[in-house]
Design goal:
The complex is a heterodimer of chains A (about 550) and B (about 120). Chain A is α+β, with helices and mostly antiparallel strands and about 550 residues long. Chain A contains 17 helices and 17 strands. The chains are: A alpha+beta (about 550), B mainly alpha (about 120).
Chain lengths: ~550, ~120
C-alpha cells in the first residue's frame, strides 16, 4: 500500500519524514500501513482501486508553531500536504486527499476551546475541537449559548464549516461557514495570518466583525487550498427560553408551490427554524402502482398523484415548523404561520406539535412525545451533538451529492422529473420521485439528496454508483443546479461545471494558488484547484 | 437539558495518565483511565440507553444486537472477552458502518486502557 509523494524518491521522502519527526515528535508521524489505514476514505467508491487517493504519511502537530514547521519542511521537499481537522467528513471523502501520495496534516491534537462568550455569543476554537468537545465545554460551565451542529457530533466546527457544512437551528446558524467569524491560517510559506479584525494586532472584536478592512480572503479557505486553518471563531445562538413545533399539511400536489412561498417568507423573516418538508404519500411507495406513478418517465402527473392522495386520505405534502425564543413569541409566530397558511391554501390543516421549556428534560430529548410522527431530529434541532444519526448508515456507507435548487415548488417538481429520469438507468433506490421533498438545510436555498450506498467488497457496484454520480453532476449542472459539496474524487467533476465565461473562476483561483503556494504543497486539487506543477503534469 | 453520556470530570487529568499507565500492569488504574476513554470515544455509539428519535438503542449497540441476535450482549460494557488486540482490529480497521479511528483519536495505549476497563471485575 506504500505510496510516495509525486516526484519524490524513497530516500527524499525518508529525509522529509525525519524532519517531520524532529518537528512534532516521532510518535506523531505515521507511515506504516497499519497507522495509515484509518486515513483512507471508508465511504469511497474507489476503495481498493488504482484511483484511490492513498496517503504517503500523516503528521499530527499540536501547535501552530509545529504546523508552521511542517509547512516549511513540505516546501523544502515539495511534499503535498492535506490538512484535516477531525477527519470525519463521511460521504465527502473522509480524511483522504485529492492527490495520492499526500501527507495528511492531522490537526486533531489541536483541541483547545480557547474562548466562549455567553454575552457576546461567540466561540474561538482550535481546528481539532469536535462538536462534542465544544458542547461539553459549554455545558460544564453552564453557559447560556447553543451550538448548531451537523448530524454526527464527532466532526469539528472548523472542518465542517470549511466544507460549508450545515446544521438544523435558525437560518443564520445553520450555514456553518456563514456563521464563522475570524480565522487564523498558516499560509503556504509558513507565515501565520489572521483574517478580519484579527489582523489588527490589538483586536477586540475578532469574533464579532468578520470583515476587518479591505478585501476579506476568508472565503478562500472554505473548500480551498490556500492555507491551513488553525483557529476559527463562530457565532453562537443565545439559548432560547422556549421551543415549539407545529405541522401544516396540504392536500394537492401543486399546493407545494404556495406552501413553499409562504414558508420562505416565514424563514426569511426570522420567524422559524429549519422547515422540515415531507410527503405523506411516501408511505405508498411499497404499492407497485403508486411507485410506477411516482417515478414515471417524464415526471409524475399531478391529477394521478392527487387521486392517490384522495383515495388513501393522505395529504400530498407537509411541513414541520420550529420556533425558538420566548414562549409568547413562539406561540404568536405559530399562530401567525397557521392562520396565514390555512387562509392561503384551501384544505390546509394545522397540527399542534410540542411546546417545550428550555432546557428540556432527558425524557423530552428522546423525542417520543410528538403528537404525530415527526421528521425533526430532536438533538440537532436543539444543538445537542450525538452519534444517534449513525443508525441510518447501512452496510459500508454512502457518498453524498446534494444539488442546490431554487427554493420554489416548481423547482422541486422539475428536479424530481429531471434527476429521476437521469438516474433511472442505474436501478438505484428512487432518490428522485414525485414524493421526494426538498431539504431546507441551507439558509436560502433547497437541496435534493442523492446518497447511494457504496461497498468495500463490490467494485462493480461502486463503478455503477460512480457513473450515476457523474451523470447527476452533469445533468444537474445543465439545468442550473450546482453541487454545494462533493466527495474528494468528484471535486474536479463538480468544479468543471462552474465554467461561466470559459472557466474564468478556475483561472482566477489558479492565479491565486500559484502566487500564494508556488510549490503547490497545500491540498493540491481541493475544490478543483490544482497548482501549476500538477496542472502541467496532466 | 440532558447531558451527553460523558462523565469527564477531571477527564484531562485522567487522560494524561492513560499513556503513562496503560499496559504497565497496574490494572486498576488502567481500568479507571480506560473508563474515561471509553466514555469519550466509545460510549456515544455503544453505551446503554435509547438512541435518538425513537431508536431503542444507540447505533453501535443496535448493530451488535443485530449481529449477535441475543447470543452476546450488544453492550460493550457487558463484555469481558474483548482483548486489546481484538479492540485494535475493530478500532483501526472499522467494521461495517463503524469507521476506522486514528491514533490521534484513540492511541494504542488508550485502547489497552479501554480493554482493561471492559475486562475489569464488574
Amino acid at each position: 500500500m506504500a505510496v510516495l509523494p509525486p516526484g519524490l524518491t524513497a530516500e527524499q521522502f525518508a529525509a522529509a519524514v525525519r524532519m517531520f519527526e524532529d518537528a512534532v515528535g516521532k510518535e506523531w508521524v505515521f507511515t506504516s500501513d497499519e497507522d495509515l489505514t484509518p486515513y483512507r476514505d471508508s465511504f469511497s467508491t474507489v476503495w481498493g482501486t488504482p484511483d484511490e487517493r492513498l496517503a504517503a504519511g500523516a503528521v499530527a502537530p499540536s501547535s501552530v508553531e509545529q504546523v508552521q514547521a511542517v509547512v516549511r519542511i513540505a516546501n523544502r521537499y515539495r511534499v503535498p500536504l492535506f490538512p484535516i481537522s477531525t477527519g470525519k467528513n463521511f460521504g465527502y471523502g473522509g480524511p483522504s486527499a485529492n492527490l495520492a501520495g499526500s501527507v495528511i496534516v492531522d490537526l486533531k491534537r489541536m483541541n483547545r476551546v480557547l474562548e466562549v462568550d455567553e454575552n457576546r455569543h461567540f466561540a474561538l476554537v482550535e481546528a481539532g475541537v469536535s462538536y462534542f468537545d465544544l458542547y461539553r465545554y459549554i455545558q460544564e460551565r453552564g453557559l447560556k449559548v447553543w451550538i448548531d451542529c451537523p448530524d454526527p457530533g464527532w466532526g469539528s466546527p472548523v472542518g465542517n464549516s470549511l466544507e460549508r457544512g450545515i446544521g438544523y437551528t435558525l437560518p443564520y446558524f445553520r450555514d456553518h461557514f456563514g456563521a464563522s467569524c475570524g480565522m487564523e491560517v498558516v499560509l503556504a510559506n509558513g507565515e501565520v495570518m489572521r483574517t478580519g479584525m484579527g489582523a489588527l494586532p490589538a483586536a477586540k472584536t475578532w469574533q464579532e466583525y468578520r470583515y476587518g478592512f479591505g478585501p476579506d480572503p476568508a472565503g478562500l479557505f472554505a473548500q480551498g487550498n490556500f492555507g491551513i486553518v488553525t483557529k476559527m471563531g463562530f457565532r453562537l445562538m443565545p439559548q432560547p427560553e422556549h421551543y415549539r413545533t407545529g405541522k401544516i399539511t396540504v392536500l394537492r400536489r401543486r399546493d407545494l408551490i404556495p406552501l413553499v412561498k409562504t414558508v420562505n417568507y416565514l424563514s426569511d423573516s426570522f420567524l422559524i427554524g429549519e422547515p422540515v418538508y415531507a410527503s405523506p404519500l411516501t408511505a405508498l411507495l411499497g404499492n407497485g402502482e403508486f411507485l410506477e406513478a411516482a417515478t414515471r418517465q417524464g415526471g409524475a402527473v399531478d391529477a394521478e398523484m392527487d387521486r392517490f392522495a384522495s383515495d388513501h386520505r393522505l395529504p400530498a405534502w407537509q411541513v414541520e415548523l420550529q420556533f425558538y425564543g420566548p414562549e409568547k413569541t413562539c406561540l404568536a409566530n405559530w399562530e401567525y404561520a397557521k392562520e396565514r397558511l390555512m387562509r392561503e391554501i384551501p384544505g390546509a390543516a394545522a397540527f399542534e406539535g410540542e411546546s417545550l421549556r428550555i432546557p428540556i428534560t432527558p425524557k423530552q430529548l428522546e423525542n417520543l412525545d410528538a403528537p404525530y410522527p415527526t421528521g425533526i431530529r430532536r438533538n440537532t434541532a436543539l444543538g445537542i451533538p450525538s452519534l444517534g444519526i449513525w443508525k441510518i448508515v447501512s452496510g459500508d456507507g454512502h457518498v453524498g451529492l446534494f444539488p442546490i435548487i431554487p427554493r420554489s415548488g416548481e423547482a422541486v417538481f422539475e428536479a424530481q422529473r429531471v434527476l429521476g429520469d437521469a438516474t433511472r438507468e442505474f436501478n438505484l433506490p428512487p432518490f428522485f420521485s414525485a414524493v421526494t421533498a426538498p431539504l431546507h438545510w441551507h439558509s436560502f436555498a433547497f437541496q435534493m439528496v442523492f446518497a447511494p450506498s457504496i461497498s468495500r467488497s463490490d467494485p462493480a457496484h461502486n463503478a455503477l454508483v460512480e457513473q450515476a454520480v457523474l451523470k447527476v453532476i452533469r445533468v444537474a449542472a445543465e439545468h442550473g443546479w450546482g453541487d454545494y459539496r462533493a466527495p474528494t474524487v468528484y471535486q474536479d467533476a463538480v468544479a468543471d461545471t462552474f465554467s461561466f465565461n470559459n472557466h474564468v473562476l478556475r483561472h482566477f483561483h489558479e492565479t491565486l494558488k500559484d502566487a500564494a503556494d508556488p510549490n503547490g504543497i497545500l491540498a493540491p486539487g481541493r475544490g478543483g484547484v490544482w497548482p501549476k506543477r500538477f496542472r502541467s503534469a496532466g | 437539558m440532558k447531558r451527553l453520556p460523558f462523565t469527564v470530570i477531571a477527564a484531562a487529568g485522567l487522560l494524561a495518565l492513560v499513556n503513562a499507565v496503560a499496559g504497565d500492569g497496574d490494572g486498576e488504574l488502567s481500568a479507571a483511565a480506560g473508563k474515561v476513554v471509553y466514555e469519550r470515544v466509545c460510549a456515544p455509539c455503544h453505551s446503554r440507553g435509547a438512541g435518538t428519535d425513537g431508536a431503542s438503542m444507540l447505533p453501535g449497540a443496535a448493530a451488535l444486537a443485530a449481529k449477535y441476535q441475543g447470543k452476546v450482549s450488544p453492550f460493550l460494557e457487558d463484555r469481558s472477552d474483548l482483548t486489546a488486540d481484538a479492540l485494535k482490529v475493530f478500532v483501526r480497521r472499522g467494521v461495517g458502518a463503524m469507521p476506522m479511528f486514528r491514533q490521534t483519536e484513540i492511541s494504542d495505549a488508550e485502547i489497552e486502557a479501554v480493554a482493561a476497563y471492559l475486562n475489569a471485575p464488574k
